[in-house]
Amino acid sequence: MFPETSLNVSLRVRADTVEAVQIRSTRMVRAARLFANRAASEVLHLLPAVFSLCGTAQALTGIAALEKAAALAASPGQKAARALLVLGETVAEHGLTIARDWPALAGTPPQLDHAKRLRHALAGLRNALYPHGDWLHLGGGRLSPDRRKITDCLAQARKALIDLLGHDIDELVLPIAFQAWLDGNPSQLPASILAQGWAGLGAAQFLPMPELGPPDLAVRLSTDREGHYLARPDCAGRVFETGPLAHWYWHPLIADLIERFGPGLLPRLAARLVVLAESLREMDQLVHDLHDEPANDLPGLDGEGLALTEAARGLLAHRVVLKNGKISQYQILAPTEWNFHPEGPLVRALTGAPAGADLEQRARLLIHALDPCVACTISQE
Amino acid sequence: MCMAVPSRVIAVDGQMATVEAFGQTRQTSLMMMDEPVAVGDYLILGAGGNFAAEKVAEATALAAIDYLSQVLSDGLA
């Protein structure tokens, strides 16, 4: 049997307060080292098959790292096409969360039909960009964008989101419209959280991931022989938060909510709506950067490459070393290792929280807000 | 890592499928699938395994299972 990876969050309660939070992880953070001695093309076809939630981001971050290692710059057209695919995956993931998990947490029925329509619309992007199916080709596949199909995909995705949220997503991330949406949709999770007085739940020291990643990332990865950094990353002792809130805390809606409630639960949920709106807006722009391109080939060079992608759950890093055209080292650092670090944002959010009958429910909401990419259990000591 | 094990469909009953991977069977919902699923297909499941996320080609699934077997035997799982 292959073990299912998971997280366990253990809350130690003393004197009516969460005195300590322990996170145990069974995530296979060193598994990518087994990509060594394999051909790059083989690994690129494995990546989307072995990563369940973010296969597109994993594969395209892998391509970018391999191309950097080979000192090959992807063309602007290829970069635009790849960005469209990653953003499409991000929108589908957040849409699914809102359709499936938000109702479950608010005690209302799921809205899976809308999420299914959203996924279906965005799944069409791959074929509309790379009709020959070679989107994983190193150096860039044969790009032949069908702008009409892409525009249709984006329009269908927007329509599914309107049906899911009951509001136009671009307007929804305006502070006044967001407040009106909360007032008019009391059964939606953000409104129920506000009504329960939990908008600022978990507000604590906020250490957002720098836009370009930790400044010491390349050095730390290259010297991480045993995988300790991959399991528990930090930057000079600081454990950053990554994901929607860390990426969009300066957005007018999120800045307004942080000012009112601190960097707590409601700003985190609202940041997902901002991701949806801004991703679709960026996708509309990227369509203009697409043009037909033949497939390129990767020269058989040796070298080292580090690539970063802002994936649905935050910053994803791949580092690869190529020798004689084959992979000699491969490392993957995923957002969950930052957000569910034993000294990271979830621990900061829960430490010192008042105990009570609803403690597990509050912990569940904060875990959801930080969005682990594996199942997560909660226990109390 | 959010690793998925491609799971082979051994039975389909409406919107539910029984799938098998590494000798373990489980039930998963096909509600999020927008293509037909049949016995013998390989599926990638979402986190927790409650929902099937997508279908993968047999050759890709077998390559992934081979890699995951190595992860298991090298003690990295």
UniProtKB/TrEMBL annotation, chain A:
Gene3D superfamilies: Cytochrome-c3 Hydrogenase, chain B. Pfam families: NiFeSe_Hases. It comes from the Bacteria. Coiled coil: none annotated. PANTHER family: HYDROGENASE EXPRESSION_FORMATION PROTEIN HUPK (PTHR42958:SF4), HYDROGENASE-2 LARGE CHAIN (PTHR42958). This is Nickel-dependent hydrogenase large subunit. It comes from Magnetospirillum sulfuroxidans.
From TrEMBL, chain B:
Pfam families: HupF_HypC (PF01455). SUPFAM superfamilies: HupF/HypC-like. InterPro entries: Hydrogenase_HupF/HypC. It comes from the Bacteria. Belongs to the HupF/HypC family. This is HypC/HybG/HupF family hydrogenase formation chaperone.
